[in-house]
Amino acid sequence: MGALLLAGRSPMSPESSEEPLETTTVVLVHSPRACSLAATYAAAGARSPAGRKSARASRDGAAARAAAADPTNYLLSGGSRALENERVRNAAAAARAHMRGMKGANAVLAAELVRTLQDGERAGGVLRGELAALAGRFRAEQSRLEGLRERLAEEVRGRAELEAAHQERIKELHKRLQAEHLLRVNAELDASRAADRASTAAVQLKGAEQALEGARQEASEAREGRLAAESAHNKERLAQAGLLAEVEALKTSAAREKHTREVQQRKCAELEASLRSLSNRNAELQEELRSAQGEAEGASQGRVAAEASAQRARQDQRAAQEQLEVARKGRAEAAAEAAELQGRVAEMEASAALYIAKEANYDDLKAEHDDTCAKLDKYRGELEAARAEARTNAERANELSKQAAKVPALSMELEQAREDLQELQGLLGDTQAAFKLLMESVKEKEVAVDGLERQVETLRNNLEGMRRARDEAVDAAQEKAAEAGCLQQELRSAQEEAANWQRRSKQLQAEADGRELELARKDLQAKELGDALHLLNSKASDDAASAASDRRRLEGVVKSLEGRLGQVQMELARTRDELAGAEQGQVTARAELAAVQEDNARIRSQLNEEQMRASKLRGELASLSSGRMKEQQEKGGLLADTLTRLQAEEAAKLAAQQEAKAMRRRAEELEGNLSEVASAKSRSEEAYESSQAALESMRRKLEVYKRENKNLLSSYDSWLKGVVAQRQPVVGASP
After folding, report:
1. DSSP state of 727
2. Helix (H) or strand (E) holding 662
3. Residue 71 or residue 142, greater confidence
C-alpha cells in the first residue's frame, strides 16, 4: 500500500491568548493512483534541482517564520520551534520511511512489470509462431481447396458430358425404336393387305368353282331336257311319218347334239381356262401371302432385335444411372469435403484475424495491463466479497445449469427441425427440378406436336394442291377427251373424205375404162379423139396423182391424230395414277393426323395429371413448411426466452467472476479452440448425415423412377400387343 504526504499550516488552538503560531499537519492519504505515482513524483522531485531548491526554501521559510515570532516569549517560542522541529523531523522520518516503502513498492512493481513484459513477449512469440503455423496450414488448406474445386469442376464437367451423351443415346434409341415400330406396323399392314387379297382371291376362286359347278349342272339338265324333248318329238314324228323321216330327224338331232356338245365343250374349256387362271391367281396370292408372312416374320425378328436393343438400351441406361449415381456420390463427398474445408478455412481465418488483432492491439493490451496492475491492488480487497458473492452465484449457476441442461435438447430439436426443413427444401428443389424437366419434356412434345401439326397443315396444303392438280388434270383430261373427240371427228371426216376420193378415183378409173372400151370399139374415131384422149389421160393421171398425194397426206394426218390420241390416253392414265396416289396420300395423311391428335391428347392428359400431382405436392409442401415454421418459431421463442434468462444470469456471473476469467483467459482460448474444433466436427457430421439423407432420398427416387419406367415399358408392350392383336387378318376358310 502506498501513501501520499500532504503538508499544510494551521493556526494554534484558540484557548491560548498569545499570538497564534503556525503548525505543520501531516496527512497520509492512501490512494492506489497516488501510491503508483508518489514514487515517481518523489524521485523526480528529488532528482530535479528545482525540487531541491523548493525543499531548501521551505526549510528556510520555516526558520524565518520561527525567527519572526514574538521575541518577548522566548520559552514559548523556543518550545514551539522545538515542537515544530520535532514535528518536522518526525515528518521527515515518516517521509523517508514512506519513500523507502515507495521505492520498495516501485521496485516490486518494476520487477512485476518486467516479468509481465517478458510474459507478454513470450506469449507474443508463441502467438506469432501459432500464427505462422496457422498461416502455413491456411495456405496448405487453400491449395487443397483449390485442388478439390478443380476436381469438383472436372466431376461436374464429366457429369454434364455423361448426361449429354446419355440423353443423345436415349434419343437415338428412341428414334430407332420409332423406326422399328414403323417398319413393324408397315409390315403388319402389308401382311394384312396380302391376307385380305388372299382371302378375296379364295372367295373368288370358291365363287368361280361354284359357278362352274352350277354351269355344269345347268348344262346337264338342259341336255337331259332337250334329249327328252327330242326323243318325245322323234317318237311323235316316227309315229306320224315313216322311217326315212325318222332317220332324217335322228341325223338332224345328232348334228344338233354334236353342235351343242361342241359348244358345251368350248364353254367347259373356257371355264377350265378361267379356273386355271384363278388357280394361278390363287397361287400368286398365296405366294404373296407367304412373302407377307416372311416379311411379318422379319418384322417380328426386327421386333425381337428391337426388344434386344431396347434391353441393351435399358442396361446402358442402368449403367449410366449407376455412373451418374457414382458421380453424384463423388460430387456429394467432394461438396462435403469442400464444405468442411471451407468451415476449417473460415475458422482458421477467424483465428488468424483474432491473432492479428491481438498482435495489432499488443500496445493497447500493454497499456491495459499497466492499468490492470494499477487496479489490481484496488480489487484485492473486493475479491473476498466477490468470492462470497461468487459462491452464491455459483449455487445459483448450478441451479441455472440444471435448467440449462434442457437447452441442448431444445437445440437438438431445433437442429432437427432445421434439418427437416432443409430436407423438405431439398425435396422441393428436386420436385421443382423434376417438374421443370417434365415441363421441358412437355414443351418438347408440344413443339413436336406443333411440328406435326405444321406437317399435317403442309400435308393438307399438299392435298389441296393435289386436289387442285387433280381437278386441273380432270379438266385437262376432259379437254383432251374433247380434243380427242374433235380429232376423232376430224379423223372420221378425213376418212369420209378419203372414201369420197377413193370413190371419185374409182369413178374416174371406171370412166377411163369405159373410154378405153369406147376407144377400142370406135377405131374410126381414134384419130379424131386421140388428142382428147391424151388430154383426158393426162388429166386422169394428174387426178390420180393428186388423189394419191391427198390419200398419203390424209393417212399421215390420221397417223398423227392416232399418235396424239395415244399420248392423250397415256396422259389420262398418268393423271388417273396421280389421282390415285393423291387419294392414297390423303388417306395416309388422315391416318397420321389421327395418330398425332391421339398423341397430343395423351400428352395433354399426362400434362394435366402431372400438373395436378405438382399442385398436390406444392400444397403438401406448403402445409408441412408452415407447420415446421410454426414449430420452429415456437421452439425459437422458447429458446430465445431461455437464452435471455441464461444470458442475464451469465452476465451477473461474468460480472462476479471477471477477475477469474481474466486469469484463465488463455485456458478459455484453448477451450474455445477445442470447442470450435468440436463444432467443426459436429458440422461435418451433420453435413455427412444430411448428404447421407439426400443420397437415401435420391436412391428412393431412383427406385420410384425405375418402377415408373418398368410400368411404362410394360404398358407400352401391352399396347403393342393389343395393336398387333387388333390388326391380325381374318382369312375365310377355303372349301
Report:
1. T
2. helix 658-663
3. 142
Per-residue buried b or exposed e for 663-682, using 16+ beta carbons within 10 Å of the residue's own CB: eeeeeeeeeeeeebeeeeee
Q: What is the pLDDT of residues 213-227, one digit of tens each?
A: 776 677 677 767 766
| Three-class HEC string of 99-112 | HHHHHHHHHHHHHH
Three-state secondary-structure class, residue 26: strand
- CB distance 359 to 135 below 8 Å: no
Q: Indicate the residue among 74, 98, 121 that finishes a domain.
A: 121
pTM for the model stands at 0.23
Give the pLDDT score at 69: 45
- SS3 of 604-646: HHHHHHHHHHHHHHHHHHHHHHHHHHHHHHHHHHHHHHHHHHH
Chain position carrying cell 449457476: 397
Please report which helix (H) or strand (E) contains residue 515, including its range.
Answer: helix 406-521
Mean pLDDT over each residue of the chain, to the nearest integer:
66
**What are the grid coordinates assigned to 181, written together?**
415400330
Report which of residues 15 and 627 the model is more confident about: 627
pLDDT in tens, 538-582: 666 676 676 667 667 666 766 666 676 667 667 666 766 766 666
Residue 404 to residue 399: CA distance in whole angstroms: 9
Cell of 631: 414449430
The secondary structure of 39-57 as a DSSP string is: HHHHHHHHHSHHHHHHHHH
Q: How far apart are CA 447 and CA 482, in angstroms?
A: 50
582-605 confidence digits (pLDDT tens):
667 667 766 766 676 676 677 667
Report pLDDT for 436: 66
Q: Which three cell numbers stand for residue 368?
A: 491495459
| Beta-carbon count within 10 A of 704 CB | 10
* Grid-cell match 372349301, residue found: 735
Of 607, 631, 650, at which residue does a domain stop? 650
The residue among 702, 698, 713 whose CA lies nearest residue 314 is: 713
Q: Which three cell numbers stand for residue 129?
A: 509462431
Residue 731 DSSP label: P
CA distances from 29 to 6, 98, 546 (A): 8, 12, 172
Q: DSSP state, 591?
A: H
Q: Which of 137, 140, 45, 38 is nearest to 97 (CA)?
A: 38
Nearest residue to 494 via CA among 538, 448, 559, 444: 559
> Which residues on neighbouring strands pair with residue 29, listed in sequence order?
4
CB 39 within 8 A of CB 106: yes
Handedness of CA 618, 623, 625, 626 (dihedral sign): positive
Supply angle C-alpha 264, 272, 280, rounded to 5: 165
**How many structural domains comprise the chain?**
2
- When pLDDT is cut at 50, 70 and 90, the band that residue 6 belongs to is very low
Q: 3-state class of 732 per DSSP?
A: coil
pLDDT digits (tens, 9 = 90+) for 471-486: 776 676 667 666 666 7
Cβ atoms of 267 and 219 within 8 Å: the answer is: yes
With respect to residue 350, please indicate whether it lies within any of the assigned structural domains: no
Q: Give a yes or no: residue 441 inside a domain.
A: yes
To the nearest whole percent, how much of the chain has pLDDT over 70?
Answer: 33
DSSP secondary structure, 270-338, as one string: HHHHHHHHHHHHHHHHHHHHHHHHHHHHHHHHHHHHHHHHHHHHHHHHHHHHHHHHHHHHHHHHHHHHH
Residue 499 lies in a domain: yes
Range of the domain at 22: 4-121
Q: How many helices (H) and strands (E) does the chain have?
A: 9, 2
681 within domain boundaries: no
Is the Cβ–Cβ distance between 4 and 28 less than 8 Å?
A: yes
Are 94 and 5 within 8 A, CB to CB?
A: yes
515-to-506, 531, 537, 547, 695 alpha-carbon distances in Å: 14, 13, 10, 20, 127
